[in-house]
Design a protein that fits this description.
By secondary structure, the protein is mostly helical. A 3-stranded mixed beta sheet has the order 2-1-3. The chain starts with a helix and ends with a helix. It is built from 11 helices and 3 strands, in the order αββααβαααααααα.
């Protein structure tokens, strides 16, 4: 029922909807008050000395309709963290930056945290996808330590064959591999470490 409701959300005028966003020649019927509440950019657009202030239909050229729908869902009341999709996560975050929608970063942080808590063994691709995204968005930095920890459990060869490896900044890859090396060193018994040290110097 919830999926059916959200799939048609914004497609038709609802009670008190008072502004229409036009994206890819499709209309999104939304509430001006919510746009103003969640986005300083929309606030300036709708209340400042801009032509959009007087328009009932506001064109948003260059935007994707499906991603704009996701952005709107994030600012409307309700539990929307489960509506975040991996496939469009970065597109959604880019819109959140453009329109300065803090709620999206809050919801995405909670979404990834929920996944980290529920999945003991996160796939290599998903771990690197999230790590790459977190490195690119400062407002998601609270997740970095957890994802570095997850990435440090992935063998280097498995990292390198992942489709998301090239999207992870070198600093994050370095930190994950360094943690892997340090953690491995802690697992080696001290007497073996001493023997290796003595062999190196012919003791």
């Amino acid at each position: 029922m919830e999926a059916a409701r959200t799939s048609k959300q914004f497609q038709e005028p609802s009670q008190h909807s008072d502004v229409t966003l036009v994206v890819e020649n499709q209309k999104l019927y939304v509430h001006k008050a919510l746009l103003i509440l969640h986005s300083p950019v929309f606030e300036k657009m709708l209340t400042g000395d801009f032509k959009e202030k007087e328009l009932k239909e506001i064109p948003l050229p260059g935007k994707r309709y499906s991603v704009m729908v996701e952005l709107m869902k994030q600012i409307y009341p309700g539990d929307v963290t489960d509506l975040v999709k991996d496939e469009t996560l970065e597109d959604l975050l880019q819109l959140a930056v453009e329109y300065d929608v803090q709620q999206v970063f809050t919801n995405c942080t909670q979404h990834i945290n929920n996944i980290l808590r529920s999945e003991d063994k996160l796939s290599t691709d998903r771990t690197l996808r999230y790590l790459g995204v977190v490195e690119r968005y400062e407002k998601l930095q609270s997740l970095r330590r957890k994802l570095i920890d997850r990435a440090s459990r992935i063998p280097a060869k498995d990292m390198m064959i992942s489709q998301f490896f090239r999207l992870v900044p070198a600093t994050a890859t370095r930190d994950a591999l360094l943690k892997q090396i340090l953690d491995y060193g802690l697992l080696i018994p001290s007497n073996i470490k001493l023997q290796e040290h003595m062999k190196r110097y012919d003791w």
